[in-house]
Amino acid sequence: MCHAVSSAPEGRIEVRTSVGSYPVRIGRGSLAELPKLLARHCPAHAYALIADAGVWGLHGARVRAVCSGLDQPLTIHTFKPGEQSKNRTEWSRLTDSLLATGLGRDGCVIALGGGVAGDLAGFVAATYMRGIPVVQVPTSLVAMVDASVGGKTGVDVAAGKNLVGAFHPPRFVLADPDLSVTLPRRERSQGLAEAIKHGAILDPAYFGWIERRAEDLLGGDPHATGALVMRSVELKAHVVGEDEREAGMRQILNFGHTLGHALEAESEFRLPHGSAVAIGMVLEAQLGERLGVTERGISGRIAEVLDRAELPTRAPGRPDPETVLKLLSRDKKARSGISRYVLLARIGRVDRRHGWSWELTRPIIEEFLASVFPGPA
Amino acid sequence: MCHAVSSAPEGRIEVRTSVGSYPVRIGRGSLAELPKLLARHCPAHAYALIADAGVWGLHGARVRAVCSGLDQPLTIHTFKPGEQSKNRTEWSRLTDSLLATGLGRDGCVIALGGGVAGDLAGFVAATYMRGIPVVQVPTSLVAMVDASVGGKTGVDVAAGKNLVGAFHPPRFVLADPDLSVTLPRRERSQGLAEAIKHGAILDPAYFGWIERRAEDLLGGDPHATGALVMRSVELKAHVVGEDEREAGMRQILNFGHTLGHALEAESEFRLPHGSAVAIGMVLEAQLGERLGVTERGISGRIAEVLDRAELPTRAPGRPDPETVLKLLSRDKKARSGISRYVLLARIGRVDRRHGWSWELTRPIIEEFLASVFPGPA
Questions:
Q1: Residues from B in contact with A at Cβ < 8 Å
Q2: Could you list the mean pLDDT of each consecutive 10-residue stretch along chain B, which spans 377 residues?
Q3: Which of A115, A370, B19, B377 could cross-link to A147 by cystine, CB 3.0-4.6 Å?
């Protein structure tokens, strides 16, 4: 997986699943192809579009115009923007909204928006009449490079994020970088965290390319953005194609996520996901260095690239090690309450000596956390 | 599929799925094999048993004693008996109850009870951390002969029954006819409706056998009950093995269900499911006869067998044809709002001239309903 970065800012990538495959279409202006792609990959009696209300405000008119080319009825169902909408109440409300329009098993859901729209609408589709097709039309950078590919859907509950959900691969993904031009710089920066992770675990050339093009990417250069989406989706498609259900290789996508998720929860979700993953990657690289698994200097190298992408490299405030430990033991990835860590060998390569991830016992993590979060003086 | 009825009251039947297969173990006293079957087919770090509180009251002590042979922790989560528990609120509550015990992705759900327990606990498992394994331990006759096999899970919503759910095949099904000995005669009768359906669509010998053994089956004869469960599961396993997702052959299991479901809903669920299916089978056979699809006399033959099984053959009261028509157009099986009907050629054989089911337009059904439900004088 260590190819040179494709210079192509558009194209089509096929993602393998346990039951077939689906295409990811990437390209500027590709939104116009939505009716054609629906007809080819997801013929249905009716379509229900579920969108973040903010995104619908920005792109609704364009989407409506494009969809006037559809022969089937289309209904629109919006929800309030933000992670706080990703819950069972909103899932129920949207499901009932689709039922009220009479959408049948021969219907199809279109998810339009960022990661929340993809997860929430995907879970509505996964559970609507025991599952109807969904197509993903990501509009945020993080959804384009990461969340829309791989079939994970779900909602958050009080006990934690994404604890209720389903694997429900889309029929296709349509990523039009032009939809991301309206994103604020800060949101682009958030999207780069997962792309940097893809480079860190699989592709050193891509990792270096993001560093060199960081300013263009933050500025919304459409050519650079297209190339970023292409390469990240190629890398992610390879991983989820090998291991859809995270029994093996897919675990490597959790690099930075074990400590990242715990810090995100510890901050009561004031720390955005991309920032949490950024800090998590630095910490997990430091952890790997300390254990002699990761080459020395890698955590510093990651911090440099994150810095160029305007992402944080250290946890803000003083996280409480006890709280973090408690959150780690409840992690969805934990087995028998022991949390698991993806450790790099070096940039572009995950250490494989203990499978795809390391089980690290509480004393090891406790000592590590005490050293990085010295706690109140 | 037209074998003689197996005289074996116990055995093991393999159900094929899109991703492998699972066994259904049938036999008196087979509950004792639960720990062994869990270890073999569903090794897990911890088990969460979800049970109908009434069933738990009857069989809890026995299940606890049997499960003392487990090496892993077991937690018990009960819900109030009855279809009214099969909703999203109870699904949320049970999910949170499992989360509170710290059950991880390496856990497994055991569903103990009738059809409601299987559907509800199955849906909890299907959506818990994007899906953990479930095993089905049916205790009612209808769950043993029908509901526990085939992977359908879900809950009811205001708009209709089973409109939210997932396909989530169990790791195994354990049907111990001894668990059904405490059932009242009326509930046994309800369970016979689906078994009679299996005979009507696939196996004339079995259909006749149920008629001859009806008194033993209603009385709870364990040998006859075991043989009934064996043959019904064989027939159902064949069908769902051919077509897990109801794209084709599985539709035949809906015989009696299109009109049956509508009458069940029209009665606001005062009409029990088995009774509704019984009446639905007679009506759909009459409909087939009227259209010249079903041999003359078949509806009468079905009514005779239902009568022996102490099931109704005519809708109670005076169902309102308008309401029934409205409910039919909203049926989950409807395509483009046109409802579909499985029509028999004769006993043991479904008419296949239009695929597995017939699309019948509103005027045809309107006329039929007007003739069978003359409405208020």
A1: 18-19, 45, 88, 92, 95-96, 99-100, 102, 104-106, 126-131, 152-154, 157-160, 162-167, 329-330, 332-337
A2: 61 91 96 97 97 97 95 97 95 98 95 97 98 97 94 93 95 95 93 98 97 96 94 96 89 96 90 96 98 97 98 92 88 77 97 92 93 75
A3: A115
ipTM over 0.95: no
pTM: 0.93
Residue B41: strand, helix, or coil: helix
- Residue B8 CA to residue B11 CA, distance in Å, equals 7
Determine the residue among A130, A161, A329, A332 to mutate to test chain B binding: the one whose Cβ has the most chain B Cβ atoms within 10 Å: A130
C-alpha separations of B227 from B209, B217, B233 in Å: 10, 10, 10
In whole angstroms, give the CA distance from residue B123 to residue B154.
5
SS3 state at A8: coil
Q: What is the pLDDT of residues A50-81, one digit of tens each?
A: 999 999 999 999 999 999 989 999 999 999 99
Scored b (16 or more CB within 10 A) or e, B318-337 reads: ebebeebeebbbbbbbbeee
User: Which chain A residues have a beta carbon less than 8 Å from that of B152?
Assistant: 130
